[in-house]
Amino acid sequence: MERIYNIFDYYGINRERYDECSVADKGNKYYGMNYILKRYSNYEGVINASIEHGFFMLDSSNISSHFENNTPVYLVPSVQRAKFLKDKIGKIIIPIGPIIHYAKNLYGEYALKSTKKELGKTLVVYPLHNIENMCYLEDRRRFIEYVKKIVEKYEFNSVLVSIYFIDLERGTHLAYQKEGWNIVSAGRRLNYDYMDCVRTILSLADYSIFQSYTSALGYCGYMGIPFSIFSADLQADFAGKTEYGTLGPMDRMKEFEIMYSEYSPAFSQKQNEFCSYWHGYDCVRSEEELYLIFDFCEAIDNNMSRKKVIEIAQDPKFDLIRPILEKSLN
To answer: Does CATH number 1.20.950 belong to domain 115-269?
Structure first.
């Protein structure tokens, strides 16, 4: 497969580099999740589970097809999410922590140090991104002016603006490029190395600013990168029917905005605990644990009785992950 070596080559990064492996749930290929989890665990089979992505803080999943898919297991970030979904979907739910844990940096140690030295103190900016049939009606100029004030006040040497592939195609990046800022991107949604690009971008950051809530916010917290959220009133303009429906009130998103509304060079304990609660920092799995979780997924199916599933979980080969399985099966 084609490899990316330069995170600043956003045109090259946005070429198609799809994961060609078979999957039990087509949504598992989103953001390269299937690829990085198999790579991390050295698992060679098909992951017989659905991997959640998106706004999992909400009371319903954006990707309802995950719930309906004929996979017996649903992989989520946190214990909180597992508890919430326990009685709502007919699957065994296993938390595996933030997906960024399983990604790799595109740069080696020397190249990373060299790039960081060249950039100096670096701010990574995440504008709100759109999807194919939706465009946010947002005040981009006000956001840019806010970022400029932060750059000047806290003396950042470089600004990297991470742009979603759809917004690159729409030319949204040009407004940021006019400010002399560097444009970066994690690539197309189905690219196998999407999360590797995300990790590389964030590894260059001394601080991040988000225009609104996004999954990368949780990745920042996990990687120890302080961040703040620019508060803005947004409306969504939908270009037709969409499974997302109306966005509606997002109280938890607003809670995040309030919690991280002020610039701070370091997290408070309360902020750390809050982010960990939602994104499952204490749920990351080792290579062997992840492999055995996938092995367990392969050993069961939706048609099995609960008694049979529990019996399979008692197999001695699952001793290492038995506490994980028992929590998920109780």
So the answer is: no
